[in-house]
Please model this.
Amino acid sequence: MALSVPGYSPSFKRPPETLRLRRKRGRSLGVASSPEERPEPTTRRAALAAGLPLRPFPAAGRGGGGPAAARRNPFARLDNRPRAAAEPPDGPPRGQREAPGSFLDSNQENDLLWEEKFPERTAITELLQTPHVSVSEPDIPSSESTELPVDWSIKTRLLFTSSQPFTWADHVKAQEEAQGVIQHCRATEVTLPQSIQDPKLCTELRCAFQQSLIYWLHPAFSWLPLFPRIGADRRMAGKTNPWSNDETLQHNLMSDWSVSFTSLYNLLKTRLCPFFYVCTYQFTVLFRAAGLAGNDVITALVSPTTRGIREAMKNEGIEFSLPLIKENCHEKKKASETSLGHEEQAVSDEDEEESFSWLEEMGVQDRIKKPDVLSIKLRKEKHEIQMDHRPESVVLVKGLNTFTLLNFLINSKSLIATSGPQAGLPPTLLSPVAFRGATMQMLKARSVNVKTQALSGYKDQFSLEITGPVMPHSLHSMTMLLRSSQSGSFSAGLYTHEPTAVFNMCPPMDEVLDKEAVHEELANCGLHPKTLNQLSQTPTLGKSSLRHVEMSDYIYSWRS
Model:
């Protein structure tokens, strides 16, 4: 009988007494049946009847002849971690005894029987139990090739991963950084071998890497992030902006910006600059030189736009098109004959009468109310407003109209925010080459070495992170360098500034360009010949952009 304890219910027993009773009950069961006469569990009898091989029961004790079987510790944790490749599959090696707490219960026996009968289940179970591994259907790469498709979107971050280290990108010497700057300013063409044996000791690789990180920016304020500009109010909140309430300072900033913008356009017109971006707080403009993206004239893409911006452009006499708007055959024919400004005029009375002439033939013209000109115009305006701020609102300007667009952007009052953190701040100009009033900037690079868990244990995973406004030429230069430094094997995650993804749309082309002539005319634009060859190709990604790139054995595969 258990002794009574003050303050406790009489039904409670002291723990030592409870354990003693259970121990006595275990001994009594052990005396009644010896280990040789102990009946087989139900699961083991079923397995023996089916002819399946079974693992033996663990030993009861060190002596092996003890009267009582060792019981499983109820507080022991079941170790469900996947086995490493070097770990024997059938338990500990000979000469080592398992602790009593690791003995298998009947549920574990069932699992062993299932694994022996269906081995493919084990691999799936181990995968589900591995941390940081998600079981999902893999994305199918869109294509495979020795070259990547051209991507005109601006990337905000690149994350390269490889089984080989990126230590060559760290701790750049002062001489190597200076050499990279000189190579960029002089547009020096660097050609690396297909595979570099020791990248850390390759000075040419490290200098070329510094060269590929350089870009040019205006305006430049060290305390203020100037890209991206769309949706950047929260990041800019609380930053010092002395020009927000100073009209004189705003005028000076805008005057300097106009000079820089004009300088960039002149470089583009003379094919000394391949392309540049104008990033406002509402939209982004991509100017491309003649010969790029399959066009024989200067082109400009504006995205996203609103009906107000398009109306203002029409009022300035800028002819443009909406290439992603689906039009019927009649509208396409009309668009080829007249400009967009004439297309959106009200339907004439004659056209309206002709379109409803079939009602008179049926004799029901008096019973049906025909839509008037105002109703047709309202429906058209509703359709235009619905596509505002969407990729379909992208505007294409070609030829001499790009110069008119330049003047429109310089004189437009809606180009600069009047309130908020970006009030009074001119748009950001991004260029791969130097221009008047520009500031040289460098993308930030950082390499990391981490241990990642795999099915066979842990393995080294090396990564290289690039942050900043990564323009198309920089992305192509990076992939060319990693092709040599990582022996043709790496993967990359690409993070796109979404409003610029639509720049990958295929613009309408009048004729097929001669690539040799394009290379000869753009030979002094500051790009590597292979990069220039890629940017002169016709875009194929549509409204999407590259999201994931993988190279294996010098062959690219990608997803968009």
